[in-house]
Amino acid sequence: MNRGRRGGVSTGMCGLFGLLRSPAAAHPEKASDAFVVLGMLAEERGDDSAGVALFTGRPVTRDAPVPLEAGDISVDGCRIVKGRGRFSRVWRPDLLLPLLDCAPVAIGHTRRATQGGRERLADAGPLAVPGPGAGIVGAHNGDVEAAALRERFALPRGRGGSDSEAILQALVGRREVAAVVEVLQALVGRAALAWVDRARPDRVHLARAALSPLVVAIDTEQNMYWASNPRWFREVRRCTSVEFASAVMLREGTYLEISCTPVPHISARAEFVPTARPCDLEEGVWEGFTAADRDRDRAELRHAVRKSGTGGFPALR
Fold first, then answer.
1. Cis before residue 262, ω within 30 degrees of 0?
2. Residue pair 49/83 in contact by the 8 Å Cβ criterion
3. Is there a contact between 306 and 188 (Cβ–Cβ < 8 Å)?
4. H helices within 59-200, ranges in order?
5. In this predicted model, which residue has the larger pLDDT, 68 or 179?
6. How far apart are CA 244 and CA 65, in angstroms?
7. Do 51 and 81 touch, CB atoms closer than 8 A?
8. For the whole model, what pTM was predicted?
9. pLDDT (tens digit per residue) in 226-263
């Protein structure tokens, strides 16, 4: 079941949030508090389902499929918990908070169903996708042309029905910047992404393709965070003891690899021209934004627009 589709394209927006800890941080509980508050705030961008992936920091080399429909599973290198409904319903502090306090990386997602089933956990993020080097775990906000992506990269049949799975399948095993960008440039539609290579859990990959917003922030203890709305970081600052040194909206067409040692830092970066469809540019992209935040982001948009009937050849704005 897909909600809010217009002209074959979903108008729904999911929420991304996450944390990359600094090994030097003196108060891990503060960053954990910030992560949980970000999850609560992300409910405004999706309440069909929610989930988190908490990593141990241990590299994994065994390629083994992880059941996408599992609501709570401890896999080699991480624990993935997800369920139907709001983040506040899925989050279990008695069981998960001790893990979060120790996790060097945490990925969170709140879902408003676009492609795939609204009720199926197999389509809820974060998703674990198998592949070379044990695969990746990631989350996506947006709506892209999954069938075209599967055809272009000869992807295997998905275990779920979401475009998120297709994107992650295309990214699995790609570690060179040029190889990652090849996939990101092939996306047609809205997309923001966060993922971790299970064989290299000391780094996080973030990307903003067309439209779907993504903000990166760093606090005064050098922990790094990401989220779908800049306002959420102002809310976190008001209701926790975390102080942010910076919060920056990524421009469209930005890919970052962020390593955690000795402190979180950008270890690789690339820019590309993302492609959207005419129907993708709508106010729902900035759901929950203040008018000022929305206007600043709109002024910086730089995607190409694929004209109807032009296949994969976009026309620049």
1. yes
2. yes
3. yes
4. 87-90, 93-102, 146-153, 163-171, 177-186
5. 179
6. 38
7. yes
8. 0.92
9. 999 999 999 999 999 999 999 999 999 999 999 998 99
Give the range of the structural domain holding residue 79, as residue numbers without chain letter.
5-316
Looking at the structure of the chain, the number of domains it has is 1
Spatial separation of the C-alpha atoms in residues 15 and 86, rounded to whole Å: 11
**CATH code for the domain in which residue 78 is found:** 3.60.20.10
Segment 26-39 shows an average pLDDT of 97
| Cα(280)–Cα(213) distance, integer angstroms | 13
Q: Quick check: helix, strand or coil at residue 308?
A: coil
Report CA-CA distances (Å) from 231 to 148, 167, 193, 281, 297. 34, 27, 19, 21, 13
CA angle 94, 96, 98 (to 5 degrees): 85
The dihedral of CA 46, 306, 184, 152: what is its sign?
A: positive
Question: CA 217, CA 296: separation in Å to the nearest integer?
Answer: 17
- Dump pLDDT digits (tens) for 161-208: 789 999 999 999 999 999 999 999 999 999 999 999 999 999 999 999
Q: Which two tokens stand for residue 12?
A: 């729904």
Q: Which secondary structure element, helix H or strand E, spans residue 293, and what is its range?
A: helix 291-299
pLDDT digits (tens, 9 = 90+) for 290-314: 999 999 999 999 999 987 544 543 4
Provide the pLDDT for residue 277.
95
Cis check for the bond before 274: say yes or no (omega within 30 of 0): no
Look at residues 134, 133, 112, 132 and name the one whose alpha carbon lies nearest to residue 123: 112
Q: Output the furthest CA–CA distance in the chain (Å, rounded).
A: 56
